[in-house]
């Protein structure tokens, strides 16, 4: 969920403002309001998606924008529910092949490298709605027919935040569609790798259908430098497994999946654990080639 990050930066921004007011001037201010040029960005991304990413799909990009705008503007900035977006979502139905659904929580950077390498995986950000609104911030203002480009409330300050409501519905749709084997990437370097308040824990998990999903394959990944706090046999992931069992899902759980470890090491070859891995792989190569 891209905008988790944006919402976080807004919250962090506010904290910074209170403690270091001089940091609040200049370009950093843009963080607080609707993303500038949002209309051009969304319509441009929509054409990119329907022309280059998923050619052949027919969507009316201009109409999607109009429905989005209608949902958000002229509402007070904390008063946009999922229902406001229904017409927009109706404009963008999507059907996804099974066995490709990739869910994640607190592994944002890694998950997108993973999906970029293993092209058969799809995340929410690969769906049309995810693609259009990734990393954007928006809110309207009462008594005005435009977005508020100056200031948007922090995500956490209201239950019906326009950004949150859109991602909530998008996540729910994504999880409801999930079928076959699905994969969940969790971060074993944090306490509560499985967090019931996260988008995955609160929305997606509840929307998965045991009749459609064959296996929930959990992968727990820690940072090479640690800490190694949670795993398949330790911490909140046990709770996730309990929930899956009680709902009749089949599941597997893997710690330190080799592909994921290698992917992390590609970005940090000098880390001691990565050097060990590299040496092992080189040794094996020597053995097989001699
Ligand atoms: C929020 O929306 C509801 C229904 O659309 C409306 O009755 C209410 O007055 C709005 N609240 C604010 C603070 O704008
Ligand atoms: C785990 O979470 C921490 C804290 O948010 C983050 O710095 C780290 O990159 C995450 N690790 C992975 C593998 O995504
Ligand atoms: C689904 O996952 C299970 C357990 O990991 C595995 O045995 C099976 O081969 C997978 N099926 C597909 C279609 O990937």
TrEMBL record:
It is an enzyme of class 3 (hydrolase). It comes from the Eukaryota. One of its GO terms (biological process) is positive regulation of B cell proliferation. One of its GO terms (molecular function) is transferase activity. GO terms for cellular component: plasma membrane. InterPro entries: ADP-ribosyl_cyclase. Keywords: Disulfide bond, Hydrolase, NAD, Signal, Transferase. It holds the Pfam family Rib_hydrolayse. Residues 1-30 form the signal peptide. This is ADP-ribosyl cyclase/cyclic ADP-ribose hydrolase. The lineage of its organism: Eukaryota, Metazoa, Chordata, Craniata, Vertebrata.
